[in-house]
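Title: Prediction job returns without error message
Component: structure pipeline
Severity: low
Priority: P3
Assignee: unassigned

Description:
Job completed but the reporter wants confirmation the result is attached to the right record. Sequence as submitted:
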Amino acid sequence: MRARSSLRQSIDAICSLGQLAPESTYTSLVLNCVRANDVEQASRLHAHMESCSFQPSDTYIHNRLLHLYAKSAEAKEARRLFDKMPSRDVFSWNAMLSLFAKCGDHDDLWATFNVMPFRDSISYNTVIAGLTDNGFPKKGLDVFALMLEHGYGPTDHTYVSALRSCSMLSCLTQGKQIHGRMVLSGSLGTNAFLWNALINMYAKCGETGNARWLFDKAPVKNVVSWNSMISAYLEGGLPEMSIELFNEMKLGGLTPDQVTTSNALNAYFETRRVNEARNLFCDIKGKKDKICWTTMIVGYSQSGMEEDALLVFHQMLLDDTRPDSFTISAVISACAKMASLHRGQGLHSKAILIGVNDNLLVSSALIDLYCKCGIIPDARLVFDPMPFRNVVSWNAMIRGYAQNGQNQKALSLYENMAQSKLKPDSWTFLAVLSSCLHANLIEEGQKYFDSMRGKHGIVPTLDHYSCMIHLLGRSGKLDKALDLIEEMPYEPNSLIWSSLLSVCSMKGDIEHGEIAARKLFEMDPLEAGPYIMLSNMYAGHSRWDDVASVRSLMSSRNVKKFAAYSWVELDNKVHKFVSEDQAHPEREQIYMKLHGLIRKLQEEGYAPNTGTVLHNIGEAEKLSSICYHSEKLALVYSLMKLPSEVPIRILKNIRVCADCHLFMKYTSNSLGRYIILRDATRYHHFIGGECSCKDFW
């Protein structure tokens, strides 16, 4: 601080004289500015020298100033000085290369390199590193080849940059050639940075075994070495090996940094060891960085623990750690999974406050949030002004339309995407096929499915085949659905057999339904869904002995039936209901209002559909059972608490039954309420007695 103050006083003194000083004085002051990294005083001194028409005897003073400007990314000052220099040497040109590399100015970096009258190894190293760091690894490797061609020997820095380019491009062949050159030239030695670059290159190219061989052979290992190998196992789909190596690192007495910890947290979440991830996170000494916080948020969200993800985000803010776009998008995605509109809107405000609302990741997450909360207009308000959209943004909006029953808009938006020259991916076609499925557009669905491979070079996955099986089967073309399963290039998995079973259940095809159910019983004997669906099929045909057999099989295998429930979020609190719920503190008022509503709707023509009760019981018992489904209780509670102008949002964990669907339609018409119901398959928007699904779900 004292040195900077003294420097400022010296420059104040020389500027106040307003006359030329000796060159030695200028040299000394410039060097002091460089040592203090004081750009402000350097600019003042530079301006004084120009005003006095000072011309140094060589390039030394100007080069020192250029170096300082480049280091501080002061592009305007550096350009002005460089353009006015009476003579330039290789140091001058290299300083400008360093400036453009630091500022991410790829065009000027490349142009300056190409017009340089002379170069040295530093010129090549700067350009290779600059191109690689700024996302142009292919050009970086081209310059590396040019360097060798012109007879300049690569340095350690050259090799590190070139190997990083190979890593970014997954260019194993060239990476191996560089490795060979390093071995032949004896460059490898004990330099940990070179060993780490090689380990990372092999890992990024999918050669995890070679990466581990190098890791074991490395004469010196630092934290970066361990991080590279732990990350390699994680990215290679071997999280258990990541955890094993992480534990080995700790046993060896090396202290993990937050990058190590973040990778270990990811590995624990991928192996569903959530408690161990939580313990590791809590054991972090000192202040946690935003990467660790974000890793926990994403891990909890992907593990179905969205509430925990939001709690961690709250703790992050209390810890005074500023979230970035990755963090905000992860938390918004957690809200989207829960369809938590109130908290999602709060996060939207937070994104605006910290200036990341226009970020591509955040915008795409917001579109997904509003679509999953059934508010398509708000999703469109985010989508339309986006300055740039990638395939994720388009997919979120197309999928949102499809999920909310606006199928023609989904298909129209897909055509707009195609016109924008952006290449669709497999997720795009899942959304498009889903639209065709919900709208029962058989020919269009077949056309889009065929275009995946034929027009876009995308190989359909089992998810796409599942959509087509649903589309064909639900449209009465079960024979074609069966043919498609036979023609698939994959072995049918549980998704395919579940799709067939679902279609058979809708169409009452017990023969093929039994085949699908048996396949599912073999694949996962403890999954309750197939047993329940087959039992319901038998019940629908009054085959009560077969129903009893299925239930006996479930009992003998200890298969647990999952509970159906619905929930609503009111005043930032979640209210959960099960069928015939007796746990809610306001149950008496809820049932009283429900009875009144049922009577009112019956007077208007509503007749409970007891045919959906698949139990061998009397009509009165069926009526009692169907009247108290969880979504009806959630609806009535929302009617009690929300003003008439506020839409009602209900979420259900399984497919809504036909009677409740009918009940929602009558209620929306009778009370003039807008009701949004999200079940396990789609969103239902009930307005004026009609549903967005057109009774096809």
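Comment from assignee: result matches the submitted record. The two ends are 72 Å apart (CA to CA).
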